[in-house]
Amino acid sequence: MYEPYTVTVVCTGNICRSPIAEVLLREAFSETGLDDRVQVDSAGTGDWHLGHDMDHRARAVLEGAGHSFPVHSARQFQAEAFTDSDLILAADVGHYRDLVAMAPDEQAAERVHLFRSFDEQARVDEDLNLADPYYGDERDFTLTYQAVTAAVPGVVEYVRGQLP
């Protein structure tokens, strides 16, 4: 029996980008039969929304696309999480830098990747930041959902290659 491979998605407050990615990744791992071997969670770099549900617009875009999921509880990423996370997916370059700086050693820092780096088109376009929809409107949340959706297959394939 293997310990589950853990994927942690990190954004700023853990109420917009990372919960959307958490929901979509969980579903993708379930659809590929890997849900018993891969655990997905999310966190924020800040503590502004600790314990809050995801933003109502993030929930609306997910529900509008047919996804169902439990109530979310925002949490903050702590340095101790490097012990439990096999792959840490940063929403943007700022989060990437913060997470690498927080890493206890080089090996832990190497587990941090930009979420959109798993989307081939985003790499070609050199557009690896997952834009923060928080100060936008519903359209911005839809664009975030689409960007996350485009990267999910690449994350799943990468993780599949990491499993024993």
Please provide a written account of the structure.
The protein is of the alpha/beta class and 164 residues long. 45% of the residues lie in helices and 13% in strands. It contains seven helices and four strands; from the N terminus they run E-H-E-H-H-E-H-H-E-H-H. A four-stranded parallel beta sheet has the order 2-1-3-4.
Strand content: 5-15%
**What would the average pLDDT be, to the nearest integer?**
97
What is the ordering of alpha helices and beta strands? EHEHHEHHEHH
Strand order of the largest sheet: 2-1-3-4
Look at the helices and sheets and give the structural class: alpha/beta
State Rg. 15 Å
Distance between the termini: 11 Å
Helix content: 40-55%
**Main sheet record:** 4 strands, parallel
**Apparent shape:** globular
Low-confidence stretches: none
Q: Count of helical segments?
A: 7
Instruction: Give the number of DSSP strands.
Output: 4
Secondary structure blueprint with pairings:
Layout: E1 5-11, H1 17-31, E2 38-44, H2 56-64, H3 81-84, E3 87-90, H4 93-102, H5 106-109, E4 112-114, H6 120-125, H7 138-162
Parallel strand pairs: 1-2, 1-3, 3-4
Helix pairs in contact: 1-7, 2-7
Which features would summarize this protein structure in a list?
13% strand; four-stranded parallel beta sheet; 7 helices; alpha/beta
Summarize the structure in short.
The protein has 164 residues and is of the alpha/beta class. The chain is built from seven helices and four strands, in the order βαβααβααβαα.
